[in-house]
## 1
Amino acid sequence: MAKVKSTCGCCRGPKDVVSSTDKSPVSITVLAGKPGAKINPAMWGIFFEDINFGADGGLYAELVKNRSFEFPEPLMGWTKISPSLAKGTLSIRNDEPFDAANPHYLRIQSEGTAPFGVSNEGFRGIGLREGETYDFSAQIRGVSDAPLVNVQLYGADGTLLDSAQLKGFSSGWEKYTVTLHPKDTDPKARLQVILQGKGAVDLDMVSLFPRHTWKNRPGGLRADMVQMLADMKPGFLRFPGGCIVEGSDLSRRYQWKNTIGPVEKRQLLINRWNYEFIHRPTPDYFQSFGLGFFEFFQLCEDIGAEPMPIINCGMACQFNSGELVPLDQLGPYIQDALDLIEFANGPATSTWGKVRAQMGHPEPFNMKMLGVGNEQWGPQYIERYKVFAPAIKARYPNMQLIAATGSDATIFPNGKAEVEYLWSQWRKLRPEIVDEHFYRSPDWFPENAGLYDAYDRNGPKLFVGEYASQSVGVASTKNRNNWKTAMSEAAFMTGLERNADLVVMSCYAPLFGHKDAWQWTPNLIWCDNLRVYGTPNYYVQQLFSRNRGDVVLPVQLSKVENLYASATRDEKAGEIILKVVNATAEAVPVTVQANGIARTGSKGTVTVLAASKLTDENSLDEPRKISPVSEKITMPGSEFPHTFPPQSFTVLRWSAKP
Ligand code: AHR
C-alpha cells in the first residue's frame, strides 16, 4: 500500500492519503452542514483580447478588411479588377477626406472601356450564408461623369452570388447603402466594387455586414460567437487584454478614448500580434476598433458579466520595449483611467457620461473594478502603481483595483524573487485583488490544485486572470486544445473553487482563435468565417460557471491521488453541487456522502465531460465531440454509490434541504 503526499480537501493542510493501489472503497464526503466561504457571483469569467483575429475578422462582424484604406499599405486586402479591355486608375488620396481621423480614401477612375474596380478579400475570405441579408454601405463622392457602381459578391470559385447597383453620386461625401442576398453559402467569398461607364468616384468606409448580428444591432458583433460567450454565463469580462493593453511601445498602447464614438472617427492602430511572433507574422492584422469600449461594456451587460477593463499604467510591454512614462508625466494616463470610470459610471450630465449617453446608453454600466496594468513587474511597476492607486481611490474610493504579478505568478520569466518582491509590495499597498497568470504544462495544473490552500488569507484577494494548459509549451504552435489539457484545468479549478474565500475570480486565456489567422494557441473557442466551436477547455469553463453555487462546502476524500473534488451549494435551487475530476485511467466507484443535513432529495443530475482518448479534440467538423452529457439520476439518501468514469470531469447536483 503506497502513501502519497496530498492535500486534505477539508482542512487544506497537507495529508497522507492512501493511493489508488489500495482496494478499499473510496468515499467522498461533502460536509454540507459546514458551509464555508461565499462564492463571488462573478467567480468564473472571460478574458477577451484582440489576438488571433479575435475582434477584427472575428467577434466584430465587419466583413471588409481595410475598409477605410488606412493600412500602411493602403490597398492591402484589395485587388485591382481590370479585365484586358479595361482602362483606368486606382489612387489613394487624402485631400478633402471623408473624415480627418481616417484621412485616406480610394479614387477609382475608369475610361469606361470595360468594368474596372476593386475586390476585397475579407478576413481570410468573406463568410456568406445563403438566405441571409447583407448590408453594403460606403461613403462615395462623385468626381467626374456619371459612372454606375456595381456591388458584387463572388464565391471562391468565381460564381456571382449577388449584385446590386448604385448610381447618381453627389459631389460631396454621402453614404450609399444596398442589400445583398447571396444565392449560396461560401466561407471564402469576396466583395467587388466595380465602375461601369466612364468617370471617377471616391470611396471610403466600404462596409459589408450581415443583417443578423448579436441582438441584430447594425454594425454589431457576430451572433454565433457572442452566443458562445453567453452560454458560459460568465461572471465578468476582462477586456481589452492582455499584452494589447500595453503596446509594444507606448505609441501603440491601447487607448480607450480612440475606440468610442462614431466608427469612422476611430483611428486605426496596428495590432501588436501583427508582428509579435516572427514565426506567425500577420501583416494584415490591424485594429479598426469597431469593437471598442462602448461595445465591450454593452457586451458585458448583454451577457450578464461584470465589466473588468484593464488600463495601461504608463508601461509598454516588458517583453518588448518596456518603455516607461516618467513618473512626473503620468497625468494623462491617470486622467484616462478617471475618465474611463466616468464614461462607465458617471451621470449622463457628466463630461464622459454624456458621451456614453450619446452613444445610446444613458444608464451607467456600473463598473466596479479596474486593472492597473497587464503583466507588469519590477520596481518600475510599483512606482507607477503608487501614483495611480491613490489618484483613483481619491475620486472613486469603492473602485476595486487589480494589480499584476508579471507573466507567471510562480517563476518564468520574472523569476521567483521578482514575484516575491511584488507580493511583498502588494501586502503593503493592498490592492483589492492581485492577478496571477499560469501558462503551464498539463502536469502542472493538477499538481497545483492545492496551490492556494496555503496562501496568506490576510492579504489581497486573488484573480487567476490568465491560465491555460500548454500541451507542448508556451507560444508553441503545436499546442493543442485536447482533452488532457482540459481535464488538467478542471483539476486545477477544483482547487480554485475550494479556495473561493481567497480566489475571487478566474478566466482562461486567450479566448478566440481564427483557424486561418491565429498567432497563439491554445485558445478557448475556435472559429472560421462561418462556424464556431468550443474546445473541451471551453466546456470545462462552462460547467464550472453554470454550476457555480453560492457557498463552498468542504469535501473529504478518503483517497485523493488523481482524484480532485470540490463542492458548493446552490442556495436558490437548494442543491449540493459536487465536481469531481477522475484523472486515472480507470473508473472509480465511490461512496458519496452528504453529512450534516437533515434531509436529502432523491433526484439529481449527473453531467459528464469525457473523451475516449486524452488526445481527442473538438473541431469545426466535430464541434461537440467532447461536450457535457447530462442525465437524471436517483440518490437513495444522504449516501449513495457513484462511479466516476476514467479520465472524466463530472458534475453531480442533487437537492439537499438543510
Ligand atoms: O494570452 C496571450 C498573452 O499571454 C496575453 O496577451 C498576455 O497577457 C500573456 O502573456
## 2
Amino acid sequence: MNREDIRYIGLLFREIAGRERKIAVCTFLLAILEAANPYIMILCTGVLVDGVYRKESMESLLFYTACALGLKLLFRVACSRMGEWFNQKLDYTRQLDEEQLNRQSLSMDYEYLEDTHVQELRTRALARSYYGIRGWLLLQVREFLKGIFSMLTALVIVFPMLAGGAQMGGGGMFSLLASLLLLLVIGVLVWGNYRAGIYYTRKSVEILDGLDGIHNKSAYYLDLLSGVESQKDLRIHAQQRMIRQDVDALFEASRKGEWRIGQMYIRRQLIGVTFPGLSGLCIYLFAGIKAFLGQISIGNVVSYTASIIQLARSASRFAGCVGRMKSVADYSRDYMQYRNLEKRKRQGTIPVEKRRDGRFQIDFEHVSFRYPGTEEYVISDLTLSFEIGEKMAIVGPNGSGKTTFIKLLCRLYDVTEGCIKLNGIDIRKYDYQEYCALFAVVFQDFCIFAFPLGENIAAAGVVEEAAAEDALVRAGLGERLAKLPQGLATYVGRQFSDGGVSFSGGEKQKMAIARAIYKDAPFVIMDEPTAALDPLAECDVYAGFDRMVGKKTALYISHRLASCRFCEDILVFDKGRVVQRGSHEELAAQQGLYRRLWNAQAQYYQQP
Ligand code: ADP
C-alpha cells in the first residue's frame, strides 16, 4: 500500500464517519471488544490455576470462576449486540453506495456515460462486495483495528515474563538473553506468518480482480436472459447454443478462478496453523523452564502461552486484512474517482432570454467535433444559421453526422472547435438547465419508462392531465387512450403493475412524440420519429406535423426523403459537412447527393 492508497481509504472513511458518526465509533468499539474478548478467559484461567495451585478456598475459586464467566458473558452480549447493529448498518451502506452512484450517473456530463473507462469505474465500485465499497471498507477497518489491539494486548500481558529476567542478578542475565532469543524466534515466526498472510491474500485478490471481467459478463447475460426483449432475436437467430457455450465458458473460468482462490486459502490456513503452533511450542518451553525455576507461576504459564498463541493468530488475521486493504484502496479510488468526475461541460450562468417576440436564432460558426477519446472528426467546419419558426429537414447517409449535429445543438456534448450561438451568445455561457428547456427532442433511440403513461408524457410526477391528453391526441394516440380503463394512470409495461399495458413499438414512438409536444419548447427536434410507425400513422404524423409543432422551430431527421418535402429548408449532410441546402425542388434540380439519394429511393415507389 502506498500513500495514495492510504489517502483514498482515509477519504472514504472520513466521508462515512462524517455522515454516520455512530458507525465509525461502533467500528472502533467493536474492534476493541472483539480483540479483548479472548484474553478474558486467558487471564481468568491463569488466575484460577494459580488459585488451585495455592490451594485457595472453594469460595475464592468459585468467585474467580463466576467473575470470569460474568465478564465473558458481558463481553459476548456487548459484542453480539453491537455486531448486529453493525451488520444492519452494512446493509444500509450498500444502499448508500447505490444511491450515491445513481445520483452521480444522473448528474454527470453526458459524455461520461459513453466512456467505457468511466462505466468500468462504476461497475467495479459496485461489484466489489455484498456490502458495497463502504461496507467492505468498514469490515476491513474493523479487522485492522482488531488485529492491532489484539497484538498490543498480548504484548502487554507477556511483557512481565519477557522483562522478568532483567530484575534478577547473574541468573537474570541468562534469563534476559533467553527472553531476547525467544522474542527473536517468535518475532520471526509472527513476521513469517504475517508476510505469508499478505502474500496469499494479495494473490487471492489478484485472482478475484481477474474475475471481474467474467463476473461483469455473467451479470450481463443474467440481465439479458431475464428480460423478454432479447429472447425474440436469440430464438430467431438460434443463438441459444452460442450463448450457452459462452455462459458455460464463463462458468468454467469462474470455477477455475474460485478453485485457485481455494488453493490459496488452504495454503494460507496451513501456514496460519503451523506458525502459531511453533510459536506456542517455543513459549511453552520457555514458560515451562521459567515456572520450573520458580520465576513465574503455573497460572502465568497458562496466560503467557495462550497470549502468545493468540498474538500469532492475530498477526495472521491482521496480515490477511493488510493484504485486503490494498484492494479496499483500489476500490475506494474507483468509487471516489467516479463520484468526483470533474464537470468538463461549462455550466454557464446567463439566463436564456425570454424574448417577447419569441425569436431565437441559432448560428453554428466553424463547428468541428470529435467524440471524446477518438481522433476522427465527425463534424467538420460546419457553419449555418436558422431561426425560430423554420421547418428544417436534415438528410444524409448513415454516419454522416446528423444525430451528432443534434447532440451538439442540445449540448449533450460541447463542440471541439468553433462555437454555437443562440441570439449571438455562445450557448456554453447560458445556464445549462434553462438552455436545455428550449428543446423538445424525440431521439431515434428514445426511452419510454415503466412509469404511468401520464408521467411519461409529462416527464414529471405531477401531470397536467388536459395537456397530456391533448398531446397524446395530437400524436395519434387519442383512440388508444380512450380505451385504457385507467387512462393516464395506466402503467407502461407490467413490471410494476398487473394492470400495466405492453404497448407496441409504434405506440411508444407516438408517446415519445406526445412527450415532446407536452414540453411545449420553442425547438422541436425529431430524429427518425416515424421509424416504428405504420404507413398510415406515418402519414398522420406528416399531415399533422404543422399542427403538432405550430410556429416552433422544427428540425427533422429522416431517411425517407419524401417525408422531408414539407420542410422548406433541407440540409444535406455528408461526412460531417453540410454539402447542400435548399428546398426539395431546388435540391432535386441540382446534380448532387440529394438527387442521388432521392432517385435511389424513388425507384422503389415507381409504378411497375
Ligand atoms: P447519423 O445520425 O448521420 O447516422 P451519427 O451522428 O450518429 O450519424 O454518427 C456520426 C459518426 O460518429 C459515425 O461514424 C459514428 O460511428 C460516430 N459516433 C456516433 N456516436 C459516437 C460515440 N458516442 N462515440 C464515438 N463515435 C460515435
